[in-house]
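Encode chain A's predicted structure.
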Amino acid sequence: MDRSQGWEKTSMFALLLMGALGLAVIAAAAGVLIKTSTSPAAVVSEVFGLRTKSTKHCDQCWRVGHRAAAPALRFTALVSTALVILLIILALLLQPGSAVVAVVSVAGAYAISIGLMLMAARNANAATRWVHGTED
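Encoded structure for chain A:
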């Protein structure tokens, strides 16, 4: 392996591991959000949560929305954790010349995780429509 191949392998390894680290943060945030928002003593957070117009409407909307989003958040945490493991395996197995695979893998993993978080927010918004007896 010449120096350029060594540099490329090191760069792909770093990209995949940094991607895995970011996805681990998404998985952890989804897990913490489930715990903090679905417990009986859940407190409306001004900083952490699904901060949409509907969920911020009132305390009841925040609680109902987050409870409705909990299954999607669990799925997000699970899938993001699986993607972390996949990226780590790819980091260990990829050979020089596979830079496109590394970039596409990280981009695809983020697209999936972010899409799942958006699905959770959509579920929260849908649930809040019924809190005040309107379909706004």
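The chain has three helices and no strands.
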